[in-house]
Structure formats: structure tokens, C-alpha cells
Amino acid sequence: GENVGLHLPTLSVQEGDNSIINCAYSNSASDYFIWYKQESGKGPQFIIDIRSNMDKRQGQRVTVLLNKTVKHLSLQIAATQPGDSAVYFCAEVGGATNKLIFGTGTLLAVQP
Amino acid sequence: KAGVTQTPRYLIKTRGQQVTLSCSPISGHRSVSWYQQTPGQGLQFLFEYFSETQRNKGNFPGRFSGRQFSNSRSEMNVSTLELGDSALYLCASSWGVGHTEAFFGQGTRLTVV
Q1: Does A2 contact chain B (CB < 8 Å)?
Q2: Inter-chain contact A32–B42, Cβ cutoff 8 Å?
Q3: Among A74, A94, A91, A101, which Cα is nearest to A28's?
Q4: pLDDT digits (tens, 9 = 90+) for A73-110
């Protein structure tokens, strides 16, 4: 069935370093992908999205890369800050159901 | 403008009871989706409403239901509560159908005892 999973459940980085969070998806029919950030006690916060007709999209300090050949999605955070500490979810939309399917999440811990 | 508002923030119910959760979307947004978040299952899609019509439904039993009003506010109801229904219930709103730039509320933490 449809499944979105993350390679690394926990990622620890030093403040100021770049972070890369990875995600694998299995539904080749998915045509829209989203990254969310969820801080403790809050709902997921939209970070950036990308459509399947794109390979890369940049935001403020964040970049999403999509490799459709290997069904892989990544989120790059430049100059990681303590405020970036949170759980990051990738999500896919598309196929026959058009449902938003979330991955399991990666905990990003930024060390000062 | 105000974000997505969910009420109540916390709720404790007893097995067998029913519960109704409320979600007020961002002004102008017409689509509301509901999700259940648990440590074991992660974030799971419940249903999506647009213009008072259910457009999509996740794989949850019929005890879970919802509706949307003409002002786009939405409610979800869970009947005959089970211990396993304890979770954070999240609502997200977006301008149109689908999940483009959906904005989440802080959620309602439901505990079933």
C-alpha cells in the first residue's frame, strides 16, 4: 500500500551546520509533497512544498529536493538554529485517493 | 489574521462516551481536514470537507464522523469511545480542495479513560 517513511528517526546537528532530513515514498503516482515542522505542543507547521514536475524548490533557509527516479525527498536547512529543533514530517499527496499521507517523522536536535 | 482554532484544547472522556471536537478554519479557507496523531501510528488522515461536503475519507471506523457548516467551521464526532482513541486530533484548513498549504491548528488532546 501507500507508505511514506523516513531514513533517520533522529538527527543531531551543531548550531550553524546544515541539516539534511530524508524521506522515501513508495507511491509513484504522488504528485505533490510537503514538509512540515512540528514543535512540542503545537500542530504541524507548513515549511515548503514541491510538485512532481519540479526537482528543487528553495525557501528561506530551506530547500526541498525531489528525486522521482528513486522516490526520494529531502529537506535541507541551512545554518541550523536552536529554533529549528522539532519533528519534521514529509507528506505526499496524489494518486487515486488524493489523501495527505504523512511519514513517521524525524526529530531534529540542534546542539548549541 | 487568526489561525486555525480548535476547541477544546484538552478533553478527558470515559470509555463508551461520545465526543465532539470543533475547528474554525482561517478566514476565507473553505477546506478543512482532520487528522489523528498518536505515538504509535503517527499522523493519520481522517477526512476532508469542502463546502459542507465530505471530499475524502481515511481508513477509520464509522464511529468517527464529521461535518462542515456553511461558515466552513467543522466538527468531528467520535462515538462509543475506546481507550485507543486517545490521541491528538488535528484540524487543518486550506483555501481549496486538496492539501496545498494546509495550516494546522494546535489540536485537541483527547484522553479516554
Answers
A1: no
A2: no
A3: A94
A4: 999 999 999 999 999 999 998 766 677 888 889 999 99
